Amino acid sequence: MRNNCSYLCSSVSIPALGSLDLKSAINMAVFEYKAIDLDSSATGGTIVADSPSQARELLRAGGLTVTRVLPLRQKRLLLPGRKSPRSQREVLAFVRELATLLRAGIPLLSALDTLSQQRGRHFGAMVQDLADKVTAGVNLGDAMSAHKEYFDDLCVSIVAVGENTGSLDAALQRLADYKEKSAGLSNRLTTALIYPAIVLALGLAVAVFLMSYVVPNLLTALNQAGRELPAVTRAVKSISDLLRGWWWLLLIAAAAVAVGVRALLATDRGRLASDRLILRLPLIGPLARKENTSRLAVMLAALLRSGLPFVEALQIARGTTRNRVFRSALSDYQEAVIAGADVAAPLEKSGVFAPMVVQMLAVGQKSGQLEEMLEQLAQAYDQQVATATSRLTAVAEPLLIVLMAILVGFIAFATILPILELSNVL
Length: 426
What we know:
By secondary structure, this protein is mainly alpha-helical. It is 75% helix and 6% strand.
């Protein structure tokens, strides 16, 4: 089966799009079709239209006999505000490649068509949708805003400013640099927590196995001997009986707790309390502060380098910051900037920024060298995040191993102790 998408987009859908207003063009959807062409050959691909009926009309206008039209975007739609790691890797590669093509002198439409052909099925359809809307007269930034599952406000704003200033390739390059640094921070934290998580999971699995199978079998003979068990052994046996007899109730309770915590985190108050708790945790709290500060500095520097006004850049940074405590501090910072007041006071009051960060932001704001200050700050904190991550891994690994050893050793001691007493060794 051959793909007739490029033919349809150039000869059928584009004239129809051109007759629509920009708002309608931005909100149009991508449809997957199967049809028979003039040569009686089966063909298929994707087409952009406002509705399935309009998609059929466009296909018939291109001389095709339509057999099936299905909305493609509904099958790949993500939850609002949820972006999978794979989609973000695809966005990073797309932005980087688009910047390279534009810098090489290739027109935007040709670059989008090229990238749509070499991307995966769903992501390629989205890129083709961008190309169709750009051909219809829609700005690339506005076209991206219709795909929130891939492009956030930061992407849309940087691309829009780049288009308005005629430096779209440079804007895309800065956007790719920011996303690469942001992904590097996340990957570094994830990598640091993988080994401790594996050790914790294995330790708990071993403990559950001992309590569910080993301990009951060993203590059965002791119960038949009629000897009174030590207090430690009785406590372990009670936990073992609970796991064996009421495991289903424990699963229900764990599921209820998980649902309750998730519902609590879905509220603004619950998320704020959770973010505040994370910042107060030992080891993890300082690392979270440095990671958020580094991400914020890189983001603001990228927005300002793109030519965005500082207040607007600060508003976008505040909206894309995940930690609510930092978001509240940025809100106070933005109000102080708008009012022309001293910006150091609200930053110090928030308690989330180190004194060095407060001074650099205040001095940079007054001297007009905020971009340079932010870039220096990002470099400094990026190194601190790397160091803190290494220290967290170095401390967490032996600590978890010792804790798991104590847990397993306690179970073993509670099991062996009555055996030793029974044989009069003690």
